[in-house]
Amino acid sequence: MATFSELINGDKPVLVDFYATWCGPCKMMTPILETLKKSIGDAATIIKIDVDKNTQTAAAYQVQGVPTLILFKQGKVLWRQSGVVQSNQLQQIINQYNGNA
After folding, report:
1. How far apart are CA 10 and CA 18, in angstroms?
2. Which residues are part of the catalytic machinery?
């Protein structure tokens, strides 16, 4: 299994969902991300990071509220937003940065 830094430094976009188990809106993101995964297939990697278990990673990206979604490619933050984001919007954002718009 690749490390977080290996994943986000790859050529493929990586959507990271920073979440917490106690967060209500975070639970709403799970089915949204499952739908997104079906829509985009291998166009991007989607990973979830529990901020309570990965405090250093969350702090490194100044994640203050959950859920926070951050899209990385080649180690760069391309896009970020806090709160629930619908799968069709996420798909458009990924396509935009993948050159498949």
Report:
1. 19
2. 23, 26
